[in-house]
Amino acid sequence: MKLLASLVLSAALATTAFAQSISIQAPADGTTFRAGSSITVEVIQHSTSSDLVQVALAIGLGIPNLAPAIGGILYNGPFNPQIQNTGIPTGQGPPTAFLQNFTLTIPASTPAGPTSLNVAHFDLVGAQKTPNTETVSVTLNVV
Asked: What is the pTM of this model?
């Protein structure tokens, strides 16, 4: 009985680990922006073989290397990525991906220097709809 419980727990944890599958496609790490300007944040949901229900996404600016803190919230709401053709030839990467773009404004009050663009993602994974969260970030330079 303990073996069965251990196997079920291991499977649930493995499913959760594989579901951690978003990344910030744009802007690239190290990109420079002016305070008060608009940026496009492109979030990619990597393919998964698990049943996946998107719940929410939050995007914020914070202090670099302070993950998983989100910082000042720029967006908080639904995540509904749509399928896109990546243009990558077959065998060299995924031919399609699920993407969503967010046009956001860097607050004019953002101090100059490095800042962390953080994305927190919440979804439900697998047949049992196991809750899963993840945070990803890139460092931006604000001038």
From this structure: 0.79
